[in-house]
Design a protein that fits this description.
The complex is a heterodimer of chains A (185) and B (197). Chain A has 185 residues and is an all-alpha fold. Chain A has 6 helices and no strands. The chains are: A mainly alpha (185), B mainly alpha (197).
Chain lengths: 185, 197
């Protein structure tokens, strides 16, 4: 226990954390105690060895490496934050469009549930709407048939134009991607 | 508390200015690298650890308290990272002789005074070999005390522990180093050591 206490005093003396009066006491104690004096010398050796240790300087490439790693780490984050933003905007748009339709549907359903006449009116409206769509499709088909009768070569022209349009679309998409990559880098 | 230039750079870096962060890196890279080297004992690993410490600092910059020293904060990140890394590492310590050889071989050719540099490196490597014998927590305390001259309180703050734990670790670390430091090693470490005896 006494040795433990002496060791602690020695350590604090080495750290210059011992008050002057206690330091003096320690010196007197070590003068009378060869074992303690030997321990003091051993620890002082270690202390001086560590104090003489040089500071290692960072290699010149370290800062560049750090900044490169930082850029590399931040890039996916920026991209993902942009795509996250786009997703959030798209969702907001969908909700904005869907919400009035949903609200109208709910309101119609509630009204219809309370009255048979209203339900009948809604079914009639839907049937009218569908009849209108069918009539439009019918007109479109009849128009196409008359074009085919007047110009028999039209379908061939259309088929030959499809690959050209597809090629043009692909090229435009690739150019847009390249522009985006250049801006990103 | 950090100096106004550092605070200014930190604020700019917080706004996304990477050049400002580069200034911080240049200012503190030696301190961080030295800590990592003294903790990990290998230059390549120290470089990786220093990079990781700066990266973590950047990503957590909004959590930095400007009333604290930035150097203390970043050294705290680096020391915690190195301690974790040492814990994870399945240790196969290099022998002292291997350490000397490795350090001699890695001497840069553009050093101005090759002989002086070699002696300094040998001295540094010998101390490093001794440090490598310590546990990560003891090593961190010794490094922060001797290379950065931090007080017990500051070390306790960096390592998120108590002042008495720091004193105790330092005490045991010095005892362990004294046990390892035989007369041969003392002679190898040269005059600075012998003068003190």
């Amino acid at each position: 226990m006494a040795n433990e206490h002496r060791s602690r005093l020695i350590q604090e003396a080495l750290d210059k954390a011992l008050p002057e009066d206690m330091l003096q006491q320690l010196r007197e104690q070590l003068d009378r105690d060869p074992q303690g004096s030997q321990e003091y010398n051993r620890l002082k050796q270690v202390d001086e060895m560590l104090r003489s240790a040089p500071m290692e300087r960072a290699p010149a490439r370290l800062a560049l490496g750090i900044m490169a790693k930082l850029a590399q780490t931040l890039k996916p984050q920026q991209v993902s934050s942009v795509s996250g933003l786009a997703l959030a905007l798209a969702l907001a748009l969908v909700v904005l469009v869907a919400l009035p339709v949903l609200a109208a549907a709910i309101s119609l359903f509630l009204a219809a549930a309370g009255s048979a006449a209203a339900l009948n009116a809604i079914i009639q409206q839907i049937a009218n709407l569908m009849a209108l769509v069918v009539a439009m499709l019918d007109a479109l088909v009849k128009g196409a048939q008359s074009v085919l009768t007047d110009y028999p070569q039209a379908p061939l022209l259309l088929v030959s134009v499809v690959p050209i349009i597809a090629y043009w679309l692909l090229r435009t998409m690739r150019d847009t991607q390249d522009d985006a990559d250049e801006k990103g880098s | 508390m950090s100096d106004p230039t550092t605070i200014e750079s930190i604020n700019a870096a917080l706004q996304g200015d990477q050049d400002a962060f580069a200034e911080i890196v240049y200012a503190f890279q030696d301190a961080v690298y030295n800590l990592c080297y003294r903790m990990l004992g290998e230059r390549g690993e120290a470089e990786d650890a220093a990079q990781e410490a700066f990266l973590r600092a950047y990503l957590n910059l909004n959590r930095y308290d400007p009333s604290r020293s930035f150097k203390t904060w970043i050294l705290s990140i680096a020391s915690n990272y190195c301690i974790d890394r040492l814990r994870r590492r399945r240790l196969q310590w290099m022998s002292l002789d291997d350490e000397f050889t490795a350090d001699r071989l890695s001497l840069h050719s553009d050093d101005p005074e090759p002989e002086t540099a070699t002696l300094t490196r040998e001295h540094s490597a010998a101390i490093q070999a001794l440090l490598n014998e310590l546990s990560p927590e003891y090593r961190a305390v010794v490094v922060l005390r001797y290379w950065y001259d931090y007080s017990y309180v500051e070390i306790a703050d960096i390592m998120d522990t108590t002042e008495s734990a720091v004193k105790s670790r330092l005490f045991r670390a010095r005892q362990a180093l004294a046990d390892k430091l035989g007369p041969d090693m003392a002679a190898r470490l040269g005059d600075p050591l012998m003068e003190g005896t």
